[in-house]
Amino acid sequence: MDTAPGESQVAGPPRQWSPAEPAPLPPAPWHTAGPPPPPSAPVSPGAPGPMPPAASGPPPPAFGPAAVAVAEPTGPAVVQTDVGAKDGLAKCSRCGSTDIALNIATGHLRCNFCRFEQASPNALATYHLDGDPKLLTGLVVGSGSADIVPSTDEVLTFKCAACGAEVVIDTKSSMQARCHWCRNTLSMNQQIPNGAVPDMILPFKLSKETAVANISAFVGKRMTFAHPTFKAEFQPENVMGVYMPYMVVDVNAKIRLTGQGEHQTRSYTEKHGDNEERYYDADVYDVARAFDIYIDDLTVESSSERLDQTPSRNSNNIINAIMPFDPAESVTYNSNYLTGFASEKRDTNVTDLAPIVTTQSQDIARYQANNTLQFYDRGVRWDDEQIDLVGQRWVSAYLPVWLYSYYEKKSNGKSFVHYVAVNGRTGKTMGSVPINQLRLLLVSAVVEIIGIILGVIILLVA
Amino acid sequence: MMPDIAQLTNIVIRAASDNSDNNSGKLGLILMLAGFVFYGAMYLRYRNTDKRDHYESETKAETANMEAQDSFSRSLTHLKNSRMSGADNTSVRGARAGGLSSLTSGVLPKGLNGILPKEFRDH
Q1: Are A155 and A169 within 8 A, CB to CB?
Q2: Closest approach of B56 to chain A, Cα-based (Å)
Q3: Among A21, A29, A412, B66, which has the minimal tally of Cβ within 10 Å of its Cβ?
Q4: Which residues of B touch A359 (CB under 8 A)?
Q5: How many angstroms separate the CA atoms of B121 and A7, rounded?
Q6: Which is more confident, A403 or A24?
Q7: Chain A: nearest CA to B110, how far in angstroms?
Q8: B30 at the A interface (CB within 8 A)?
Q9: Is the preceding omega at residue A65 within 30 degrees of 0, hence cis?
Q10: Which of residues 46-85 of B touch A (CB under 8 A)?
Q11: Nearest 5°: CA angle at A149, between A395 and A343?
């Protein structure tokens, strides 16, 4: 490995964040208590005082001056997150062995030779990336979230410090390799701009035995219409622990929503012949809300393959559905956490994911605004939504997933990979089970026939 | 198998009682679609194509400096729908998966979304 510590910091080209300037709301009577007939819920409390203005100049070097380096006067503040990281032999501090792996029971790294355990520090606290989102301005990114440089080598050659042999690590699928001469394990911990080493890693907390039990229980409840080949081949113990790449984002934004809301004033029935019809009267209000929102640890997949969640093509939504994680518990990256697990490499940049994060931030804001809209029991239609991103903080992370995958070869020649996934921290389980279509269609047909008979009887009686 | 049938029964009964004055007539019509509803419910139970991360409610968020403006515009009468037309304050746009629309195309008849109970509808 030629890269020295610190050399792999990639500031990337300056990224300009220029959300649309929000149009001013009408100067009409703003209040904080609710509409003329006031909404039943009070507005959410928050930090007093006005928000700082949107960042227009260079972002201040906040969140720990020692760890933060401002890369460009007009670019993002890049926080170096591989300070002190070394490639090559990562030895046990007590016995010198390189055979180190995660002890899921404690969450610490354990030497498999002398059983010495060592805890890794919390990543967000170590790199001062845990600052209050209220104080966030400009764009702050961890150095492990830097833009991927396409020409960066994925296959790297390391010189084994124990015997001098040259050992190859293919970062596409692994961050470690065993020296074929002296059997020492070589690790890659320094960041290079290929997305392989993230800012932080959230270790597995759930054991494989628990994951197997969760998957067995989940699939066991879905055996009636499961495909017979799947039932015959189902082996939950083949579950694999995978560290998936994500971006964890904090957002400080100003939101402005304008639209109309309806409040029901009357509900009544009218008789038309033999039928009774229900009608409603409602008052319509012009509604507007403007507020600051602070979002903490919004988590988005950073693998382009996992971002594609089209059910006709894949079952990636299953992996999406086992969120949320607890990324605040992540520790500083160490390849030894990956020992015995697989990992996927990040292949997207902050700029690729920014539209998703902005849209999801708006969704969260709309959801939060509902706390002030209970008066509008018929709903609110927002005609205009504006988000002004005051500050963002992007941190790349490996998050733990127990994944059982099943390759289904369909009769028409097409194939489909079904996943049953277990959150490696919470145990939340979700899955896709191949269906025995013939059986399901037959039973559905029987249900349909019974339904038609019952329906006709009811219609005749009515 | 029994829980599946119980779930179907629950769907049908709740769909019939949802904003209806002519329950028996609608129940009869819904029963005529029972096979399709059963297929859709089982498909979702096994494939879970409608499942996704509910970040909009599960992500930690805090609001501050809330300013509200509410001014009366007009009154409407004799409305047939219990919900405001075009209301989108509970809609989610950033999700890349989920909802009944994620069922394989053509499995369920168009318009089925409207007769399903709220929790089964695609928002």
Answers
A1: yes
A2: 4
A3: A412
A4: 93-94
A5: 52
A6: A403
A7: 17
A8: yes
A9: no
A10: 46-49, 51-53, 55-85
A11: 55
ipTM above 0.85, yes or no: no
Q: What is the pLDDT of residues B71-92, one digit of tens each?
A: 999 999 999 999 999 999 999 9
Chain A interface test: which of B32, B84, B115, B118 (most A C-beta within 10 Å):
B84
Residue of B nearest to A287 (CA): B70
Chain A interface includes B106 (CB < 8 A): no
User: Does B86 reach chain A within 8 Å, measured CB to CB?
Assistant: yes
| B104 vs A: CB within 8 A | yes
Is B107 in the A-facing interface, judged by CB distances under 8 Å? no
Say whether pTM exceeds 0.90. Answer: no
Average pLDDT over residues A312-323: 94
